[in-house]
Structure formats: structure tokens, C-alpha cells
Amino acid sequence: MTTKVSPIYLDYNATTPCDSRVVEKMLPYFNETYGNPSNGLHIQGRKSAKAVDIAREQVADLIGARSNEIVFTSGATESNNLAILGLARFRQNAQRKRIVTCVIEHKAVLLPCKRLKEEGFDVIFLPVDKNGKVILEEASKSIDENTLLVSIQGANNEIGTLQPIKELAELAHQHGALFHSDAAQAAGKIPVSVDDWEVDLLSLSAHKFYGPKGVGVLYIRGGTGAIPLEPIGYGGGQESGLRSGTTNVPSIVGLGEACRLTKATLNEEVIRVQRIRDQIETQITSKIPLSKINGILVERLPNTTSITFQDLDADALIYNAPDIMIGTGSACTSGAIEPSHVLTALGLSREDASSTIRISLGRYNSEDEINIIVKSLVDAWSSLVKIQ
After folding, report:
1. Domains and CATH numbers, the chain
2. Catalytic residues
3. Distance CA 116, CA 121 (A)
4. For the residues of 30-88, what is the DSSP string, one character each?
5. N or C: which end of the chain has fewer CB within 10 A?
6. What is the pTM (predicted TM-score) of this model?
7. Backbone dihedral region for residue 349 (phi beyond 0: left; psi -120 to 50: alpha; all else: beta)
8. Are 142 and 124 a contacting pair, CB within 8 Å?
9. Distance between CA 41 and CA 287 in Å, rounded?
């Protein structure tokens, strides 16, 4: 009897498994320490509040912030909306009416910006070069004295391109604008420092670095009073009035532990996963003619590779490679008929965009898996070529 080998998970940019140490840390806060941290009149509430305080410090420690600058949310999507819509609506009667972002942002940034455009704001979508990098000259032309906010992602979720965040933030600040970065893909994969990046607002999600789903953070430089934001929801006034709702203590504790574990191992993990990624790319491009790595000429996330196979449907390739679990782009936009807006922004044709896969590695991948991964893709490619 043959033992079935489980497929190898290679979709860590979509989501990560919750680390068992994170789960263990969360468990007591479901049925042992279950008090509402807003109630400090009894021991249950005080214990929960203390756990939230510790988690806030752990998150701040990961990104080089202070604990009073951390606001807990349901994830980067909510954080992005709170940063962009919250700032714009608080200052909707001010003179500054320009919002600057870029064409390959996650839809959790693009759609709030498009909504503001409908509300009368002047929204600029910066182009990128063929490697997915924001063109600084174009940014310099677009960011001016009328700019309220610049929002640029730290790293792209599909091709892994790292953006020149510090340079863009400096450019924004020269004109008196604020700078926000969606760091959902960057945090936990590369070092992120709010001071080095010089950001005013920053978003992240726990489930992108081995924490639970449904919890994230908005970093606000100087604390919640320093950059006034209009809440996007109203209720009990938790999180300094910016994010009402009963505090999700178990998930916040899990986020804190995920941050602690990530900081302890990040430097070694960057080197390890990049070594695996580079070997996969080298073997694939040598064994599959005309395969191309997107974004290879600029700094990328160490775990991410975007590979285009000429004249080959990516969905068919994935279907014919059952030993591995990969994607074609952002899981948040899966099911869309249109090709990836990221890939077409790089200049890829619709056909090439539809022939592109994304492999994103993580904590539980090993070098022992490289040959299986490569063989699965090469075999799938060979079988499809024969059919054609």
C-alpha cells in the first residue's frame, strides 16, 4: 500500500498556518482568562487588559514603535481603510485634497482611494516600471503642496517587489503630506522599522506571519491623538475611540506572540527561505524553456517568486501539479475573470499574466522539498506541452 504524500504548501503570501506556539498562548484566553478588558473592576477584566497591554508592547517591539502608537484592528484591510478614509474624512474640508498611491497596491488600498475620488478628492495612481517598482520621478511630479496622504505598500503580494519607502516618505514630508504603508506582506518577511521607513501610518495582519486570522494593527506615529482620524465604525469607543467593539483578547494575544517569535528568528529565516527560493528559480528557468521570473532585477521579498510560462495556462499548470499548493496571484482577488492588475501594470500581456504562477515560501518549507517542487512543475509543464 502506497502512503499518500501531502501536498507541499507554497502559498504563504496568501496566509500562513498559525504557529502551534501561538495557538498554545491563545488557548487560556478562551475559557480561563475570558474577562472583558474594558472592565477593570474584577480580576478577570484586569488579567485580560494586562494580556492586551503585553501584546501591544510585543507588536511595537517588532516594528520599532511605542505601545501607545498601536491600534488593534481586524487586519490590514481594516487598517488601510481606517488610515486612508479616516484621514481624508477628518480633513475633508481642508485645502489638501490630493491622495497619491500606486497602480499595483492591494485592493484594500486601491478601492478606498477610488471611493475618495468619487467623493471629490484628487487621487493619483503612480505607474511602476517593468519590475513593479514605483518610479520616483513620477512620484516627485505628483506629490505637491496639495497632497494630504501618500500610500505605498512596503512589498507587493504577487511579485514581491520592495518599494523605496523611505525615499517616498521623505518626498511626502518635504511637501507636508503624511505617509502610509500597507506592510501586510513585508512584516514578518523582512525587517520593518517605522523610524527607518519614516512612515506616519502603517498596516499589518497577524495571519501573514503565523498568527491568527482576523486581527491586525494600524500604527499611528505619536499615538492616536497625534494624527486625527475619523473612525469608520462607531460603538463602545475601544482602541482610543478608533476601533469600537469588544476587544478580541485571544487573537490579540496570538498576534503579540507571533510578533515575538518572528523577531527572534527573522534574520536567519530571511537567509534560509531566500536560499530555497533562489534554487527553485534556477532549476525552473534551466529546465523549462522561455520561463521568466518577474521582478528579478530589483529587491524582492526573500520568499516570493512570480514565474511566467509562455503560452501556458497557469490554472491548468496548477491543476496538473497536485503535489504542491501554489497560486496565480492575490488570494483576495481569486475568482476574478480579469488578469492580475499587478502583472498587467508591469507590461505583461493578458496572455502572459494568465500564464503566471506565484510561489511563496515560509517557515515550514525546507530544502528537502526543492526537488519535489521543481519536478512537480516540470512534469506538469511537460504534460501540457504534449497536449498542445
Report:
1. 8-17+266-387 (3.90.1150.10), 20-260 (3.40.640.10)
2. 332
3. 5
4. HHTS---TT-TTSHHHHHHHHHHHHHHHHHHHHHT--GGGEEEES-HHHHHHHHHHHHH
5. N
6. 0.95
7. beta
8. yes
9. 66
